[in-house]
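Reviewers asked in the last cycle whether our approach scales beyond single polypeptides. To address this, we selected a multi-component target totalling 264 residues and predicted its structure end to end. The input consisted of the following lines:
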Amino acid sequence: MATPQLTKNQSLVMGALAHSEGPMSAYTILDKLRDQGFRAPLQVYRALDKLLEYGLVHRLESLNAFVACTCPHDHEHDRGVTAFTICEGCGQVTEFHDEAIEERLSALVRAQNFKTEKTTIEIRGHCGSCAA
Amino acid sequence: MATPQLTKNQSLVMGALAHSEGPMSAYTILDKLRDQGFRAPLQVYRALDKLLEYGLVHRLESLNAFVACTCPHDHEHDRGVTAFTICEGCGQVTEFHDEAIEERLSALVRAQNFKTEKTTIEIRGHCGSCAA
DNA sequence: TCAATTGCGTTATGCTATAACGTGTGCGAT
DNA sequence: ATCGCACACGTTATAGCATAACGCAATTGA
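The resulting structure, written as structure tokens, was:
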């Protein structure tokens, strides 16, 4: 899926996420974009839906929040599992990928005769700086 | 963490989940327990908090819903990662565990100097019966 | 007995997400 | 050219998920 030109709203949401330190909820994004003319949650959610589809943004299920994809790539290799560490102290989110986990999960799931559509891996805890 | 005697509300919520085919949201549980005297969401959420703490129930982050733990054991080995396949067709949830994934994830996370508190692995897709 | 803890019930509120409606714009087929 | 379609957009209303804050009752242990 090639990434098409982003619309105005999509660009604004993408920009807000890209410039943010950490993940943001849809409503936080909405607040940041009020000055740019955003007035309703749907404007944010519709843009997010597309950005998720293009692989430019990830949804963190355990946070009900969104982050810009940090992969340096051209977003062509959207096959593949994305995992996250999420620091409960500072909110920092780190995205990572690992083929070994991917293959192992894939084998286990196949053994169940299950067809994967989306895999969520999120690790909550504390980063080095915030560790108790 | 030994499992103490459950209170009345905890037992009712546990029972509702245990007898359910699939995952239930807190509000669905509330509706099922109205006849038993439940009136407010907090009654459900408070019971769920304890059941989660005891390891008798899991929360599915990608569904905002809860399932009874299907492990046959005595819930003493609460160390360890739990993973789920979630069928979008029939709603069936299958819980599974794998040491290889656990160790691999653990190593990757340690390399980030990150301390894990809770790991979420959820695979959305279709089970054999529901596959397209 | 007193203080601390835990569970419970209730009301109110806040956060997250989508339904349903209508408008405007670009673009290809007839 | 214009009709029909797909798509993005804007708005209002509503649905669904979760917790704050208050007070009461029962239990326990110093």
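Helices of chain A lie at 8-18, 26-32, 41-54, 99-111. We regard this as preliminary and will revisit it once experimental data from Aim 1 are available.
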